[in-house]
Amino acid sequence: MTNDLLVTSSCCSTSTPNPAAAGNGRNLLGGASDDMTTCPVMVGTPVSKMAAEAAGLYRDHEGERYYFCCAGCGPAFDSDPAKYAANLK
């Protein structure tokens, strides 16, 4: 038995750059603001809608489209869409 540390990291804690959160190289603080949203699973994480769509990182729920910062957020959203959708309201 090992004494592994319990890591409470997000689904997005990877060393691989995330194109959906990167905003396609745009400055996240300005410009193209209607392309930017936040991830409903990792609240506060910026997401480029265009990059997320290109990467397939989105779901439609009750007539709204939700964009994710990483591949792990889609399955989390699927487990309870209403809960995560409420995070953006």
UniProtKB/TrEMBL annotation:
It comes from the Bacteria. The lineage of its organism: Bacteria, Bacillati, Actinomycetota, Actinomycetes, Micrococcales. Residues 45-85 form the YHS domain. InterPro entries: Ferritin-like_SF, RNR-like, YHS_dom. It holds the Pfam family YHS. This is YHS domain-containing protein.
